[in-house]
Amino acid sequence: MKKERYQLVILLIACIAIFSPNYAQYQLSPLAPQLISDFGLTSGEFAGIFSAPMIPAIFLSLVAGILVDKFGARRVLGVSLFISAAGIGLRLTANSYFALFSCMVLAGFSALFLNASGPKILGGWFPASSLGAAMGAFLAASTLGMALGMGATAMLPSVPSAYLISFGVSLLAFILWVVLMKSPPQPPEAGEQPQSPPIGQCLKVVLKNRTVWVVGLSLMFAMGGNVTLSSFLPSALGQRGFDSVAAGAISSSVMLGSLTGCLLSPVLASKLGTPRLFLFILGLIAGISTAYAWLAPQGVLLWSALFITGIAMGGLMPLLISLPIQLPEIGPLYAGTAGGLTGTLQLLGAVIIPSWIIVPLARDSMSELFLWGGICVLAAGFLAFLLPDLKKKKLLNNNN
After folding, report:
1. One GO CC term of this entry (predicted)?
2. What's the DSSP call for residue 190?
C-alpha cells in the first residue's frame, strides 16, 4: 500500500489508541454515585481514582519521550497499550479502593506514551503541511473519548458492562497496533536511517532548545486555564440557578467546541499562513471567553459563548503540540523527547495552576477564578510571539 494511503491507517490506529484510555477514564464520571456507594468511597477518594491515569504522565512524560526516541515508537507504544488494556480489563475484578486506583494508574500508561510521542508517530508519515491537521484529528479522538465516556455510559445497564466495552476498545487498540503499525518508509534521498541517539544527546538537544520551552510554557498556561474552566464551570452555573443536569449539559458545549477546534484550527492556520498571529488570536478569544462566557444570558447566547470558548481553547493544542517536530534541529529524531518535555509542562500546568495558584488567588469568588483562568490562557497566546517563523527558518536552513 502506498505511503499516502497508509497514512490514514496509521492515523486511524493512533486515534483509536488515544480514544481508549480517555474513554475508560471518563466513564467513571457518570458511574460516580454507584462506585462511591459500592466501595464506600469519600469524594476525595473518588477524585483520586478519577485522576489516577494522570499520575504516570506527571512523573514519566520526559522518560517516555526518551524511550520512544531510543527504542522506537512501535515497540514502546505496543508495551504501553498492553499495560493499559490490562489495567482497564482488571477493573472487572477490582473490589477495593486501592485495587481500582491501581487499575486506573495502569490504564493511563498508553495515554502517557501517546501524548509524548504523538507528533513523532504522525510526523514520520505526514508532511509538515498536513501534520497539524493529523494532530488535530488525533486530539479530537481524545476529546471524543472523554465526551462519549461522560455522555453515553449512563445508558449502559451496569458498571461491569461499561468496563467490558472499554476493555474491548483497549484490546482492539493493542491488536491493531501490533498487527498494522509500521515504521514510516524512508525516502530514497534520505540515505540510511539515522541510528537511535544516546539518551544524553536527546536531553542535551531538547533542553537547550528555546522554542521547545516556549511551546511547553504555552501549553502549561493553556491547560491551567482549561482545567480551571472545566472543573468549576458546572458549579458556577449552579450558583446562577441551573440544576445539576442543566449545568452539566451546558458545560458539555465547551467540550463540543474543543472537538471542533481541534479539527478546524490546523486547516485555518495552514490557509492563513501566519501561525504565530493565529495562535495569538485563539489565545485572545479563549482568554476573554474563559473569563466572561459563563456570565452570558441563559439560552442560545450562553451555549454559543461556551462553544466558542471551546473552539478557541481546543484550537490552540494541535498547533502547539505539532510545532517542535517541525523544527530542523528537533525533527522526528528528537520529537519524542521534545514531546515528553512539553507534555510534562502541560500536565504541571493542569495540576499546579488551578489548585495551587488560581484557587487561592480567587478567594472563593467564581468571577475571580475564571478571570485568573482567562489570564493564563492569554499568557499562552502572548507567548506565541516568541515562537519562530517556521517558513523563514526552513528557508534559512535550506540556503545554508
Report:
1. plasma membrane
2. G
